[in-house]
Amino acid sequence: KLFFTDYGNAAKVERCDMDGMNRTWIVDSKIEQPTALALDLINKYVYWLDIYLESVEVVDYQGRRRQTITKGRQIRHLCGLAVFENYLYTINSDNLSILRINRYNGTDVQALARLDNAKEIRVYQKRTHAAVRSHACEVDPYGMPGGCSHICLLSSSYKARTCRCRTGFILGSDGRSCK
């Protein structure tokens, strides 16, 4: 799945399949300007910053069990969001510090370091990435991902895929080759 935020005409947090199909709103109320998003892949939670409402909130992948982690003026200056173990990590754009926030109670907030010009933060750790199983976009014997001549996108499951073409090409009637 692909998770993303939008604060155009109607602010929301959404998800869809990697090929863009099955688009679903998971948060569409009491949300104004969601600017950063982080996933807890193990427990299947979505965290986001709303700088207009000055809050950090969380829901499960279906949009249920919504909770506010922390709220207040300090949220207005946050950008970027990452989750690892018991904490959320973000950047305070006002003073360029990396902050660590307890994701269960939101009260334990610590400045860890200062950076010169950061706007995004990521945590890389082997345990945060699920083991990759075989999937529909694996390279075939001819070197084509999922049998697609240009781009292979996973669809509704790891066993399904959709072929797409680069700009300037159209998908052939076979659903795999681009012309």
TrEMBL record:
GO terms for biological process: canonical Wnt signaling pathway. InterPro entries: 6-blade_b-propeller_TolB-like, Cueball_EGF_LRP_Nidogen, LDLR_classB_rpt. LDL-receptor class B repeats lie at residues 1-43. SUPFAM superfamilies: EGF/Laminin, YWTD domain. GO terms for molecular function: Wnt receptor activity; Wnt-protein binding. It comes from the Eukaryota. One of its GO terms (cellular component) is plasma membrane. This is LRP1B protein. It comes from Pteruthius melanotis.
